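Quick look at the format.
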Amino acid sequence: MATSVWFYAGFTAFILTMLALDLGVFHRHAHAVRPKEAGMWVAIWTTLALLFAGGLYFWHGADTTLLFITGYLIEQSLSIDNIFVIVMIFAYFKVPPRYQHRVLFWGIVGALLMRGLLIGIGVLLIERFGWIMYLFGAFLIFAGIKMALQREGEAIDAEHNIVIRTVRRFVRVTHEYDGQKFFTMIHGRRLATPLFLVLVVIEFTDLVFAVDSIPAIFAVTTDPFIVYTSNVFAILGLRSMYFLLASMVERFVYLKYGLAVILTFVGLKMVAADIFHIPVVLSLLVIILTLGISVGISLKGTVLARPEHE
């Protein structure tokens, strides 16, 4: 799909305006985001994504719309796994609930910049070296198998975490929070607060997840505009989804297996693209069914596992 630079500029301007309203108007004052408020924002970002899909249908037809929706669902589903890690990060650093929104807001701004850069590099590599699609596919198959086999509940070890150790080596970090500030002044010296350390860890975590999710969407389309917009909408919904699901993430015990199946599926699709073409509609159905089954089994399993007196 040939897309003018003005489409990118207009889309980015709209997203920045929404983010400015989010932080400057609706979340001007630090407060704990309740599930009801989070659910409202999830609905808002999902509605905007669907309206954008409707616009694509009007201007570019059903095929482009299906590509966007499939890419959006892939990115959205893979980003859910990020929520588990964010929960552990906030718990380890004991981040007060009223400051978590600010960290995630700037974390998402950084994620959008990083992903835009990675998407540009990915598209350029595919255009220059077509065979790299096979490499991406093989990597996704490996990532899917690794996700299915990895152990649950691996805790954060600050003493050995290379990101935390690197930041502390170059930046003086206080032991106490200073409201929602990332930096504070103590005895005339500008020091980082633990909130800044949390932000850096979350940014690095998203970078790690992007290494999986961005190649996955290339299995659906290599159109940079579709890849970019589907990533943006998925990432924007992640923050609100965290506040909606954070208290119940432990119930999604089988979700990682569903995500592993999705990663492996799109990896196989990329590897076998020249031999067997999988229609976009079929890919979309596989993703929806896999997510639905893994979430359904998780919720049913955790309900049955609860003691009768609860």
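Next, a different chain entirely:
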Amino acid sequence: MTDTASRQDPAPAVAGGPEAIWGAYLDLLKPAAALAEQVGGPRSADVEYALYRQFAMNLAQGYFIYFQLDPKFPEFMPFEHSVFLAQPNPDSVYYLARIEAGGVYRVTGRRGDAPVAGFGLIGTLIGTGTPPGPGYGNFDIDDLQLADDGAFEVVFSETRPDGYAGDWRYTHPQAQFLLVRQFSVNWGEDVDVQVAIERLDPTGAKPPMTPAVTDAKLRELFGGYAERLSALCIGTVNRLAEKGFVNRAKLEDYNDYGNTDDWPQAYWECVFDIADDEALVIETDMPDTCHYWNVQVIDALWNQVEMVYRQSSLNNAQAKLDPDGKFRAVLCATDPGLHNWLDTNGCRYGMLIGRWYRASAHPVPVLTKVKIQELDRRFPATSPRVTPEQRQAMLRKRVVGNQMRRKW
């Protein structure tokens, strides 16, 4: 990534006027259209145009990454949420700051009361280079010294600053990004974390961005990031299908991305492939203890399907267990009247991803493809059900709660 170190470069020599210069940037994105041939599942105009929308989303997200994230003058910026959808956890809002080797960064804020809140140190961010990662550690805010009002302060650096006795976390010199993640189970009711970052070692006044730096960043954004991110997303779904996990779940720990004893999170995931008249029944035992869990619906491009106006995810506060203690849910396109319905939003091919965080066990659900008309006899009579009026109330709560969360 281009950063402020090259701000003194001369202006780029580009022939032609503004139209030619801007056209050259747009031309850099054209080869990305070939990714349409790599998308798994049934081919359709819906999928093709979803890819074009993803390119636009990547550019919007990439603007924050390339033009607002600066390791010398850091600031937390929005990364993933209900707008930037490259496989975000629907319960989470992610913020991102850029850091660099040798920097000393102080993060201050208030904890709030969302069930999970913490930091992650990342090497190469998805889309900014190949391959992404690795993770250089995740840190739970609850492990810091918290004041009565939840206030905290922590310094991230390679060595503890002289005379500093507060919370400090070692920062690997190859870490380029500091991620903030929080998982909210009661959308709009859980109090969000408040967080700010500042660099303590001197970097001088922030200078204006030169034409040369702007040119380099635009070339990377249009000619690199937008295509790389979509290629990674599509490839993630395809690789899972190629391994045979279609309508069959597998467990994944992603330890390479920092899921360790300090951030004990495991995932189960599968590719789903169902027709319009079919459903995928999900059934799993539950851990004896689990601080947080959820399940979400991803499309063939690794985008979360509509998460605000559709019930395309469930967490431990939104879902209901059966009287026998098991979690049973159904993935399909039409509302079957079951409480634990996962709406495909018309998506016939994509992914299911579930998370277990701080759990005593990591069960792998059993998945069964059935006809929608068979669902009544597939679910126990005691499985929680809802009326159309109750479903609408659940969706209204979802819509309002999502907007009450801070994203920007």
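The longest helix spans residues 211-242.

See the schema section for token definitions.
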